[in-house]
Design brief:
The protein is mainly β. The chain is about 15% helix and about 40% strand. The radius of gyration is 18 Å and the shape is globular. The N and C termini lie far apart (about 60 Å).
Length: about 120
């Protein structure tokens, strides 16, 4: 019985020590005047402190160099959350949303694309 308890503790211990190492964005909801974006970054990340933001580009790709149509700063230091992006979306148009890891647009880290 002692071995089983030790094995269970080892498995349980290793499960609690895993951590997220990816960055992801996903649509929460999309209306003609607003996009709610869900973001997820590694534990311990501080989006507000590091100047991280969500950008919206018209077209099938977010860009490292072309400025977004609009952008919104992440205003908390929560490593996961939602951000509302006010915008007027055009019908039958493709857009890309990107999560940028700092003030420089070249730190674009995750994207998703949608068509209205």
């Amino acid at each position: 019985m002692t071995k089983k308890k030790t094995t269970a503790a080892a498995s349980l211990g290793s499960a609690t020590t895993t951590s997220q190492t990816t960055i992801a964005v996903a649509p929460g909801s999309i209306t003609p005047t607003m996009i709610v974006v869900q973001y997820s970054t590694p534990a311990g990340n501080q989006p507000k402190t590091f100047g991280q933001w969500i950008g919206l580009w018209q077209g099938p790709l977010a860009s490292y160099t072309v400025p977004p149509v609009t952008s919104v700063q992440v205003t908390t230091n929560n490593s996961q959350g939602t951000v509302a992006v006010p915008v007027t979306l055009l019908r039958s148009t493709t857009y890309s949303v990107g999560y940028v890891m700092g003030p420089q647009q070249t730190t674009l880290a995750a994207t998703f694309t949608f068509t209205t």
